């Protein structure tokens, strides 16, 4: 009888232990979150990454292209949510209205930027962060005064009034900005000066290549690296985006330490949208790989800096991308995966939100894009 009891307890132990081993990576991720919460329960800094035009199928295409055995940065996410993207006047949003929602927590009409439908200016989370003394930055592959980055500091009833948006950047107090748009910052205004001259008068270092930032460790810097937008990933952009993210995080974290404050960095993978409008699957893979490298750089920073939350999401999906099987005969070992587009425009599908770092467990469920922004402001104490 004793032997039967011993075998019973041994079998019970084996049943309990086996699934624990199978879930080892899940337990490690949970422990990392608990350790971060114990080390720094409050969210001090935010890295807000927006893949312009990126839907769930774009992330899936990246996973397929990299091979499922190779984890992409998105797979490291510790929590996920979904957001709805419609604008105040259209079930399919544009980047101006979506950027405004993600930056301010308010819906507006398509083509508007940083204003309500009645044209009233509304303060963004980055403007609130500047007002509170946090150090702030923007990194983009498009021009700095484009719709998504512009929504974090600009206020225009029409998003394509690009020179006034550039002027509003000069007045914004944002510490770091890397991207394109030199043409909009170099033309002479009514006061006889250019925005570049006004930036230098305010103490900014204005550079025209990222390598010029190698010796810059803190302070204020604006990099205008192209006349308009930077090259596409598949046409020579190189490692600009992950390197620009690394450099911006270095400068902002040093500024934050000197000010005894947190920081906020907004990063846009702008060209995902452009190549999705073109229905160019190969170019989408190149842009997604580049954005993935930038997400990985941000995650590595978060691992080393408790109190930092990383949020990766999108403003809208572009292209209606689907990934059907290449053959309806599923008895085959491999049928291939096709890239099929339903549109050359934006779509109304819900968008993924990937969260990593301190506070990642606090944002869950299906929500409006405005609710995501408001929850982030609550976590940062920017209400």
Write the SSE topology.
Blueprint: H1 2-22, H2 24-39, E1 45-51, H3 56-66, E2 79-84, H4 95-104, H5 125-132, E3 135-143, H6 147-150, H7 162-170, E4 176-180, H8 182-186, H9 195-201, E5 205-207, E6 221-224, H10 240-259, E7 263-269, H11 271-277, H12 281-304, E8 308-313, E9 317-318, E10 321-322, E11 340-341, E12 346-347, E13 351-357, E14 365-368, H13 369-380
Parallel strand pairs: 1-7, 1-8, 2-14, 3-4, 3-7, 4-6, 5-6
Antiparallel strand pairs: 2-13, 8-13, 9-12, 10-11
Helix pairs in contact: 3-12, 4-13, 10-12, 11-12
Tell me about this structure:
The chain is of the alpha/beta class. It has a single domain (41-380), classed as Alkaline Phosphatase, subunit A, CATH 3.40.720. It has 13 helices and 14 strands. The chain has helices at 2-22, 24-39, 56-66, 95-104, 125-132, 147-150, 162-170, 182-186, 195-201, 240-259, 271-277, 281-304, 369-380, and strands spanning 45-51, 79-84, 135-143, 176-180, 205-207, 221-224, 263-269, 308-313, 317-318, 321-322, 340-341, 346-347, 351-357, 365-368. It is globular. The termini are far apart.
Q: Mean pLDDT, nearest integer?
A: 92
Count every helix, treating DSSP H or I runs of 4 or more residues as helices.
13
- The strand count comes to 14
CATH topology (level 3) name = Alkaline Phosphatase, subunit A
As residue ranges, the low-confidence spans are 7-22
CATH classification class:
Alpha Beta
Strand order within the widest beta sheet: 5-6-4-3-7-1-8-13-2-14
Order of helices and strands: HHEHEHHEHHEHHEEHEHHEEEEEEEH
What is the CA-atom radius of gyration, in angstroms? 23 Å
Biggest sheet overview? 10 strands, mixed
How many structural domains?
1
Superfamily (CATH H level) name: Alkaline Phosphatase, subunit A
Tell me the CATH architecture. 3-Layer(aba) Sandwich
């Amino acid at each position: 009888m004793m032997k039967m009891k011993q075998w019973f307890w041994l079998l019970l132990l084996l049943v309990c232990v086996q699934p624990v081993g199978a879930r080892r990576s899940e337990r490690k991720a949970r422990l990392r979150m608990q350790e971060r919460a114990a080390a720094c329960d409050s969210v001090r800094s935010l890295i807000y990454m927006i893949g312009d035009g990126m839907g769930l199928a774009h992330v899936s295409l990246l996973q397929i292209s990299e091979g499922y055995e190779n984890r992409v940065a998105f797979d490291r996410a510790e929590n996920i949510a979904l957001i709805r993207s419609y604008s105040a006047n259209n079930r399919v949003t544009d980047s101006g209205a979506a950027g405004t929602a993600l930056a301010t927590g308010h819906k507006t009409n398509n083509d508007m930027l940083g204003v309500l439908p009645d044209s009233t200016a509304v303060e963004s989370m980055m403007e609130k962060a500047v007002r509170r003394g946090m150090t702030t930055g923007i990194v983009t592959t498009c021009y700095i005064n484009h719709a998504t980055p512009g929504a974090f500091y600009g206020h225009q009833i029409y998003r394509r009034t690009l020179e006034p948006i550039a002027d509003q950047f000069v007045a914004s107090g944002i510490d770091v900005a890397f991207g394109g748009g030199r043409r909009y910052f170099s033309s002479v205004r009514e006061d006889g000066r250019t925005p570049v001259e006004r930036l230098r008068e305010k103490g900014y270092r204005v550079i025209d290549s990222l390598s010029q930032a190698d010796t810059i460790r803190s302070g204020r810097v604006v990099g205008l690296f192209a006349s308009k937008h930077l090259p596409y990933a598949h046409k020579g952009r190189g490692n600009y985006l992950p390197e620009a993210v690394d450099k911006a995080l270095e400068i902002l974290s040093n500024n934050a330490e000197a000010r005894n404050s947190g920081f906020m960095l907004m990063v846009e993978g702008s060209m995902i949208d452009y190549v999705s409008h073109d229905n160019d699957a190969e170019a989408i893979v190149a842009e997604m790989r580049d954005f993935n490298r930038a997400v990985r750089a941000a995650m590595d920073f978060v691992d080393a800096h408790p109190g930092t939350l990383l949020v990766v999401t999108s403003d809208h999906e572009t292209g209606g991308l689907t990934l059907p099987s290449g053959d309806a005969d599923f008895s085959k070992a491999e049928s291939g995966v096709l890239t099929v587009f339903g549109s050359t425009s934006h779509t109304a599908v819900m968008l993924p939100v990937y969260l990593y770092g301190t506070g990642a467990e606090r944002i869950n469920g299906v929500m409006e894009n405005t609710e995501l922004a408001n929850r982030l402001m609550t976590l940062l104490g920017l209400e």
